[in-house]
Amino acid sequence: MREQPDGAALLAIAREVLLRELLPGLPEDKVYAARMIANAMGIAERQLRAGEGPAQEERGALVALLQREGELAELNRELAARIRQGAFDGNREAWSLLWDSTIQRVRESAPKALPASDRMG
After folding, report:
1. 121 pLDDT exceeds 70?
2. What is the rounded CA–CA span in Å between residue 8 and residue 22?
3. Which residues form the DUF6285 domain (predicted)?
């Protein structure tokens, strides 16, 4: 059993300390870098909380669409190549996969950009 707080909670705590306590005391030329670090920490926290589920779902959808097995990155490259070739023009399944993947990526990188109903997986 892991101790509490877990990794995601530790990232959240560290991010809060960075933003609330350290950032105000930084020289102006270091503020942008500190905000980038805080943003990266937020993304990492959300990815840890989401676990492997989103990647497994995306891989499963790609396997179904492409009709072959493979690693997620490899399947995404093939999807991109086929899209460039026009293989999925008008394909509702491909559109749905791309939409779902986009929503998941925004959930991790910028959840406030989504309506509240789309923020949680």
Report:
1. no
2. 20
3. 24-112
Place of tokens 């805080």: 38
48 Cβ contact list (under 8 Å, min separation 6)? 6, 7, 8, 11
Burial of 45 (0-12, 13-18, 19+ CB in 10 A): buried
- What are 26's two structure tokens? 């930084």
Count CB neighbours of 46 within 10 A.
17
Q: Which two three-digit tokens encode residue 90? A: 């008008």
Provide the token pair at 97: 């996969």
CA 26 – CA 10 distance, rounded (Å) = 22
Q: What is the pLDDT of residues 65-108, one digit of tens each?
A: 999 999 999 999 999 999 999 999 999 999 999 999 999 999 99
Residue 41: which residues within 8 A CB-CB, separation 6 or more?
A: 11, 12, 14, 15, 18
